[in-house]
């Protein structure tokens, strides 16, 4: 499975940005799709996750809840991360990931496949 993340860039605080992650296929190994981020000098951290199931429920880190929305397009095998009201602390390399679990997971170890990362820089 290959994941291709895109959509990063330089934005100002308060702006919006939408990231995309295209999966080469949708299988049992990609049942959950997640977004993680790695701020400069810090460890990779969980942002949001969603499953390919019929339900549109998702799980979010507290730091982004109410500002970020994860969604998916099953027909396109693509997952999105809509980022609204971005803050300087959102600056990071954002990674999409896929895993085989059928429930929400927040640990990087639970995701088997990773995209290459896309840089998001928020200027204040």
Radius of gyration: 13 Å
Name the poorly predicted regions. Answer: none
Q: How many helices in DSSP terms?
A: 0
- Could you tell me the strand content as a percent range? over 45%
The tally of strands reads: 11
**Morphology:** globular
Structural class: mainly beta
Helical fraction: under 10%
**Main sheet summary:** 7 strands, mixed
Task: Write the element-wise H/E pattern from the N-terminal end onward.
Answer: EEEEEEEEEEE
Any descriptors?
single chain; 124 residues; mainly beta; 11 strands; 48% strand; globular
Any overview of this molecule?
Helices cover 0% and strands 48% of the residues. It is built from no helices and eleven strands. The strands form two sheets. Strands 2, 4, 5, 6, 9, 10 and 11 form a seven-stranded mixed sheet that branches. It has a four-stranded antiparallel sheet with strand order 1-3-8-7, with no helix packed on it. Strand 7 (68-73) and strand 8 (78-83) form a beta hairpin. The N and C termini lie far apart (37 Å). The model has no long low-confidence stretch (mean pLDDT 93).
């Amino acid at each position: 499975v290959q994941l291709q993340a895109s959509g990063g860039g330089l934005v100002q605080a308060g702006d919006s940005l939408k990231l995309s992650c295209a999966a080469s296929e949708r299988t049992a190994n990609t049942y959950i799709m997640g977004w993680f981020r790695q701020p400069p000098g810090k460890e990779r951290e969980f942002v949001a996750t969603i499953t390919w199931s019929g339900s549109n429920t998702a799980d979010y880190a507290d730091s982004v809840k109410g500002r970020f929305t994860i969604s998916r397009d099953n027909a396109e095998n693509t997952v999105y991360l809509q980022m609204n009201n971005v803050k300087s602390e959102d600056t990071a390399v954002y990674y999409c990931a896929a895993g085989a679990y059928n429930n929400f997971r927040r640990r990087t170890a639970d995701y088997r496949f990773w995209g290459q990362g896309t840089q998001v820089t928020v200027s204040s």
